[in-house]
Amino acid sequence: MKELFFYNDNTYSIIRKLRASYFYKKEELNRELLNTWKEYLGAEHILKTDTHFLMVETVKEPEWNEIKENEEQLQPEEQTV
Fold it and tell me: What is the pLDDT of residues 55-67, one digit of tens each?
């Protein structure tokens, strides 16, 4: 089961967590290495916590229609065999 991460009213599925320290050399972020990991894992976005970079994909909200109490429910058609 995938771990979920909630940020800015969005839900993300974590593909992989990578230690942030792995991407820093002398206090400078190695963006090329970070983007290489993103592409390799097929992640949509990169999020950062205090200690890790999270390679994530957005969890899409399902489409749905609201059913109101007073609306007539559609019934399946009868079939003769």
Answer: 999 998 888 888 7
